[in-house]
Design a protein that fits this description.
This protein has 13 helices and ten strands. The protein is an alpha/beta fold and 327 residues long. The strands form two sheets. Strands 3-4-5-6-7-8-9-10 form an eight-stranded parallel beta sheet, with helices on one face. A two-stranded antiparallel sheet has the order 1-2. Helix 8 links the parallel strand 8 and strand 9.
């Protein structure tokens, strides 16, 4: 396993880590036995960081992490998130009392005394501009409930706002071959300021695995079934805001990235890891096979400059204009 420092926190975390949205819920059928088996397998392979949130299965993924990491609390880092249990537009949702309650509830589910990385979970832009939530997080840090804090953002603008606060230690962003905009300004600025970058949806909700055909139908409780047009939450969280059929079409046009590499998914993760500003990717998983498939990215051949240029041009000419919603 390769490790990278999370910004300037001193925490060295696995460059391939894992998100736990899929094992918590909203990605179709879940299997607790398989989820725990997969978490423990990832830990055995050297993975030492997991991302979760209080709304993933209404706290279920936090509870699974508590079971999987019992006795390893000083070796396995956990980043969890808050705010989406309430009204993300209301300042009251970010008051000291509200955030402390969210934090203590997560601590109970995680069965931990302190949260390694506490992240604001895609709040309203105006909340970030106001900045009061950062004062609240500073207070929780001084009380020893959290070690560090960061923000999961939807747009480059939001990320740039967060970077103005010197105590924000990480940004969680949507970044992949179909979402290259952060490369222009956000990632260089975060790197300059010593802020870690966690990459969610690195495979664009599975599009960049290359395994889907345009007629595929997702399970009813899978957000890829009901949020393709942003009906439930930000449209960018599903298929990178491209829509499923358009995404499949575009993925088929870049399946060449798998040539000389173990898989298209592994190659897509390798492309992200080749960017020096990135701390880690946090793909989802539902079974041990997917864990192993994602871990393969560490040993895959890096992209040449010519390949990187080709993918950048492809994004500019064929992808960026089709992304829906602000990003």
């Amino acid at each position: 396993m390769n490790y990278r420092e999370l910004g300037n926190t001193g925490l060295m975390i696995s460059e391939v880590s894992f998100g736990t949205w899929a094992i918590g819920g909203a990605w179709g059928k879940t299997d607790n036995t398989e989820a725990l088996k997969s978490l423990r397998h990832a830990i055995d392979q050297g993975v030492n960081f997991f991302d979760t949130a209080d709304v993933y299965g209404d706290g279920h993924s936090e509870e699974l992490l508590a079971k999987a990491t019992k006795g390893l609390e000083d070796k396995i880092y956990i980043g969890t998130k808050f705010c989406r249990k309430g009204d993300i537009f209301s300042p009251e949702n970010y008051s000291y009392e509200a955030v402390k309650s969210y934090c203590e509830d997560s601590l109970k589910r995680l069965n931990r005394d302190v949260i390694d990385l506490y992240q604001v979970h895609c709040p309203a832009t105006e909340i970030l501009k106001d900045g009061q939530v950062f004062d609240v997080l500073d207070r929780l840090k001084s009380e020893g409930k959290i070690r560090h804090y960061g923000v999961s953002v939807e747009t480059v603008e939001e990320g740039m706002i967060c970077l103005e606060n010197p105590n924000v230690k990480s940004l969680q962003v949507i970044f992949n071959i179909f979402r290259q905009k952060p490369l222009e300004e956000l990632l260089p600025e975060a790197y300059k300021r010593g802020v870690g970058v966690l990459v969610r949806l690195p495979l664009a909700s599975g599009l960049l695995s290359g395994k889907y055909k345009a007629d595929h139908i997702f399970e009813e409780d899978d957000h890829r079934n009901f949020n393709e047009n942003g009906a439930a939450f930000n449209i960018g969280e599903t298929f990178a805001g491209l829509g499923f059929k358009k995404g499949v079409e575009l993925a088929n046009r870049i399946n060449w990235i798998a040539e000389g590499r173990s898989s298209m998914a592994g190659a897509a993760l390798r492309w992200i890891l080749d960017q020096k500003e990135i701390t880690c990717v946090i793909p989802g998983f539902r079974n041990q096979r997917q864990v192993d498939g994602n871990l393969e990215a560490m040993n895959i051949q890096s992209f040449s400059k010519a390949e990187l240029d080709q993918l950048e041009l492809f994004y500019q000419k064929n992808v960026s204009d089709f992304i829906k919603g602000a990003y």
